[in-house]
Design a protein that fits this description.
The protein is mainly α. It has 3 helices and 2 strands. The mean pLDDT is 89.
Length: 95
């Protein structure tokens, strides 16, 4: 669940050795999530990835995820729609 995750920024390397390491040189706990790494796992072609990143860059920062967690913690319900309101089919279009 999103509320149980620890969204955090990747630590900055303190040395050239840490920067080039192929293994994490910092502690990673089971619930740690680094949103800035999401781009690596999109699996989209470059042009689609660029478009996605341009439209949804907020997904790659911790602030959005902390805001979502705060809303959930306050009892809020978060609706996620694939389209803006003006692009969605209205009730009159549903079968």
């Amino acid at each position: 669940m999103v509320s149980e995750c620890n969204f955090t920024k990747l630590p900055q390397p303190r040395s050239h050795y840490e920067e080039l390491s192929d293994e994490p040189w910092f502690a990673v706990n089971e619930r740690d999530i680094f949103p800035e790494e999401f781009q690596s796992f999109l699996g989209l072609q470059e042009d689609l990835r660029d478009l996605f990143v341009a439209q949804h860059s907020d997904l790659f920062g911790v602030d959005l995820w902390h805001q979502i967690q705060a809303r959930i913690s306050a009892g809020g319900i978060i609706d996620i729609f694939p389209y803006e309101q003006n692009r969605r089919l209205g009730i009159e279009h549903r079968a």
